[in-house]
Amino acid sequence: MPEAPKNTLKPTTDYNLELKNKKTLQFIEDVTSNADEVQKKVLEEILSRNAHVEYLQTRGLNGHTDRETFKKTMPVITYEDIQPHIDRIANGDTSPILSSNPISEFLTSSGTSGGERKLMPTIEEELGRRSLLYSLLMPVMSQFVPGLDKGKGMYFLFIKSEAKTPGGLVARPVLTSYYKSTHFKDRPYDPYTNYTSPNETILCPDSYQSMYSQMLCGLCQHKEVLRVGAVFASGFIRAVKFLEKHWRLLCNDIRTGTIDSQITDQSVREAVMKILKPDPKLADFIEAECCKDSWQGIITRLWPNTKYVDVIVTGTMSQYIPTLDYYSNGLPLVCTMYASSECYFGVNLNPLCKPSEVSYTLVPTMAYFEFLPVQRNNGVTSSISVPKTLNEKEQQELVDLVDVKLGQEYELVVTTYSGLYRYRVGDVLRVAGFKNNAPQFNFICRKNVVLCIDSDKTDEVELQNAVKNAVNHLLPFGATLAEYTSYADTTTIPGHYVLYWELSLNGNTPIPPSVFEDCCLTIEESLNSVYRQGRVCDKSIGPLEIKVVEPGTFDKLMDYAISLGASINQYKTPRCVKFAPIVELLNSRAVSSYFSPKCPKWFPGHKQWSNNN
Ligand code: AMP
C-alpha cells in the first residue's frame, strides 16, 4: 500500500515545501491509480486485525479476510442494528466487541437516532488517518493558488461540549476531538497550518469568548490573511454577523491594545496579548468600513489579501452561497473535503470549481468503501421514508469503489478501522468522474433529511412527531391542523425553521397568540438534541416560527405543483419546501406569525446519562 508522506519535514525553505507538496500529490496519484488493490488491502487489514472481535465471530466470518466471503457473510447495517453493541461499550464493556483496538472515545455524530446523537466508536490511530486527509488539502490547493505559504489562514474553529458515558468514555464531536488532540495542538511547523487564531482561542469552551478572541486576532493580522473560512458555510456567516454586532468593542481593543473585560479566560487573554498591540490607525480603518451602510464585500474590504473562502457549501449548505457571495464580493468558495464522524472520506482535487460542480475523490486508504445503487424520484421525496433493511438480493447489489458507474447515484457504505462493518452512512452520492481509477462524487443529499440550518439534520418522521405533539395545544379551541409544510429560512441570521400551518376551525373561540407560541416551543422541545443544542448552546439556530396561512392555501400549492407537471393522482403535500416560488406563494397567504418564546431544554450527553454529567 503506498505509504502516506510523513509530516516530518521542516519546510524552512521553499525547496522543502515544494518537495513535501510533490510527495503528497504523488501519494494521491498512487492511491487513486491503485484504488482497487489498496481497497483490497484495507479490507484485509481491517478483517485480519479484528478477526476475533465478537461482532465478526458471531456472524461467522471465521477469520476470512477476502471480499467475497465478507460480502456473502456480513449484513449491510444501519446505526440501529449495532446500537445494542454501542450501548454495551458506552456502559463500560471493554471486551473486543467491534474492534480489537481499545475504543478510545465516542464521536457524537450530528445524525441522530431516537432524538439523540449517534455515538460512533473510534480508536486512537484514527486521528492519524484524519491528519493524513487534512495534510492532502493544501498541497492540492497550492497547485491552483500559489503563495499560500506566505501568509495566514483566518479560520473560525470551535470546540463543543463533551460528556462522559456511564462507562467513562468521552463522547464529543469529531472536530472537538481533533482540535484537542496533539495532532492539532502540537502540530509541527507548517506554513499551511499557520492560522490567525492561537490554539487557546480555538480551545476555549465559551463560544462567545472563543469567537471574540478569534475575530480580534484575525482583525489584528488582517494584512497577512490569505484565506478565510470555517467548517460549514453557516459557521462563517455567523462570524460575519458577530463582527457586525461587536465591531465597536473589537475596535476599542485594537485602539487601546487591551482586551475587553468580558474575555475572562486567562489562557485566551495571554495568547491574544501576544498578538494585540495598540493600533489606532487599524481601529480607524475597521471602524470606517464597518460604519458604511452596506456590508457587501466586507471580507475583501477588511482582509484585502484574501484569495478564497474555505467553507463547505455542498449539500444543504448551498443555501448560504448568495450570502457568502455578498460578503466576499464573489471570491471563490472552496469546498476542500468530505468527512464524517464515522470516517473521513475524501478531498476535492479541483478546489476552484464552481460549488455546483464540486466532486470529492474518496481516498482509498481511509476505509473500505461500498456503494448501494439508489433510485430517486427526480429528487422529490414527499412521503415519509424510514431506511429499510436490505434483503439478500439488495445486499448483493453493493458495488466496490472502482466499479461504480458514471452518472449513477449510490448510498455510501463503509467498513472502518474503528469497528463499523458495512455501515450505511446515509449520504447519497453521484459519480461525476474519475481520478485515475478512483471515482469522484458529487454530494447529493443526506437520506430523509428535510430541514437543516447548521449541523442539525431533521428528518420527516421527527418533524411529523413534533407537529403531532404541538397540535394538542389547539384541541381546546376546536381547531385541527388540516395541512402543514416547513421551510429552512436562512434569510435571517441565524436561520430558523418556519412551519406553514393551515387550520380547520370548528369552534368559535379565538386562539390566543400564546397558544401558537406554546406550539412553537413544543415542536422545538420535541426535535432532536442536535437541533436543541444549536438553539441553546451554539445559538446557531433562531426561534422556530409558525405561519398560519389562509384556508385553501394548500390546494393552491397542489395546483401549482400540478401546473409544473406533478401527477394529480400521486400528489402528496411536501413536508418541506425549498423552491422559491412555492415559498413566496405560502408567504403571500400567511395571515399571522408566531415565534418560540424561549429556548427548548438541552443538556450535554444523552438523556439517559443525565445523572452522570
Ligand atoms: P457528522 O458525522 O456530524 O460529522 O456529519 C457528517 C455528515 O455531514 C456527512 O455524512 C454528510 O452528510 C455531511 N457532510 C460532511 N462533509 C460534507 C461535504 N463536504 N458536503 C456535504 N455534506 C457534507
Can you tell me about this structure?
There is one protein chain. The protein is built from 21 helices and 22 strands. With 613 residues, the chain is α+β, with helices and mostly antiparallel strands. The longest helix is centred in the middle third of the chain and has 24 residues. The radius of gyration is 25 Å and the shape is globular. Adenosine monophosphate binds next to β1, β9, β15 and β16. One of its GO terms (cellular component) is cytoplasm.
On the 0-100 scale, what is the average pLDDT? Answer: 94
Put simply, the count of helices is 21
Q: Give Rg in angstroms.
A: 25 Å
Shape: globular
Total strands: the figure is: 22
Q: Approximately how much helix is present in the residues?
A: 25-40%
Strand order of the largest sheet: 9-10-11-16-15-14-12-13
Low-pLDDT segments: 7-11, 378-384
Instruction: Characterize the main sheet.
Output: 8 strands, antiparallel
InterPro entries: GH3, GH3_C, GH3_M
GO cellular component, one term: cytoplasm
Domain GH3 middle: 360-446
Protein name: Indole-3-acetic acid-amido synthetase GH3.6-like
Comma- or semicolon-separated keywords:
binds adenosine monophosphate; GH3; 613 residues; 22 strands; Indole-3-acetic acid-amido synthetase GH3.6-like; GH3_M; indole-3-acetic acid amido synthetase activity; GH3_C; globular; 4-stranded mixed β-sheet
